[in-house]
Amino acid sequence: MTDLKVLITRDAIAKRVGELGADITKDFSGQSIILLGVLKGAAIFLSDLARHVKLDATFDFIGVSSYGNRPSPASELKSGWDSTGEVRLLKDVDQSLKDKNVILVEDILDTGLTMTYLKKLLMARQPRSLKVAALLDKPSRRKLPLEGDYVGFKIPDEFVVGYGLDYAEKYRNLADICVVPRE
Ligand code: IMP
Fold first, then answer.
1. Is 82 noted as a catalytic residue in this protein?
2. Residue 110 is part of a domain; what is its CATH number?
3. What residue's CA is closest to ligand 1, atom 19?
4. For 116-169, how does the pLDDT look when each residue is reduced to its tens digit (9 = 90+)?
5. What is the domain extent for residue 55?
6. Of 76 and 1, the one with more pLDDT
7. For position 167, what pLDDT does the model report?
8. Considering the domain boundaries, does residue 104 fall inside one?
C-alpha cells in the first residue's frame, strides 16, 4: 500500500500534543497522575505526551482486544469496524488504582465501545479521578455516548494510520497521520 495521504503532519501533532500536556499539567497542578496507555496504539502518543506533563507521573499499560467479529483489515477499511462491544482484557494494570488520578491514554475514539468498557472496568477500582486523553476522535462513528477529556484532533470517518495507529499491525511507525484510501 503506497497510496497514503497525509492528514495530520508531524509538526501539527507535536504542537497539539504539547498543548494537551500543558492542559493536563494545569488541571492536576500539585498532584500526581498515572498515565495509563491502551496497547498498542497509544504507545507513541503516551511517550510524547508524558514529556509535556510537568507533574509527578508514572506509566502503566492495559491491553484489550475486541471479541468476535472484527473483520479483516480490508473489509474494516470498506465498512469500518462494528464490534459487538464485547471487549477482552489481554493485560491488566500492574498496580492498584485506588485513590489515584488516572489518565487513560488512547490513540483514537471511534465507536466508543472500547473506552466505555475500560472506564467501567477502571471505575470499579475506585480511582480518585479518571480522565480520557485521545489523540484522535471520530465522533460521527460513535455508538455509545462518550467524550474525551483531552482530545487532539476531531477527524472525519476515514481509516487512519501512523503515530501508533495500524493497519494489520503495519504503519505504526509513520511520523505523520495518514489516510488509507478506501477502494
Ligand atoms: P472503538 O471501540 O470503536 O472506539 O475502537 C477504538 C479502537 O479501534 C482504537 O483504539 C483503534 O485500535 C481502532 N481504530 C478505530 N479507528 C481506527 C483507525 O482509523 N485506524 C486504526 N485503528 C482504528
1. no
2. 3.40.50.2020
3. 159
4. 999 999 999 999 999 999 999 999 988 889 999 999 999 999 999 999 999 999
5. 10-157
6. 76
7. 94
8. yes
Which residue's CA lies nearest to atom 16 of ligand 1? 110
CA of 150 to the centre of ligand 1 (A): 17
- Whether 167 is in a domain gets the answer no
Q: How many domains does the chain have?
A: 1
Options 110, 149, 157, 176, the catalytic residue:
110
- CA 77, distance to chain mean position in Å, is 19
Phi and psi angles of residue 7, each rounded to the nearest 5 degrees, phi first: -100, -45
- Does residue 4 lie in a domain region? no
Cell digits for 136?
484522535
Looking at residue 48, its amino acid is D
**Looking at residue 144, what is its pLDDT?**
85
Does a structural domain hold residue 39?
yes
SS in 3 state form for 122-182?
HHCCCCCEEEEEEEEECHHHCCCCCCCCEEEEECCCCCEEECCECECCECCCCCCEEECCC
Does this model's pTM top 0.90? My answer is yes
Strand order through the sheet with 160-161: 5-8, 177-179, 160-161
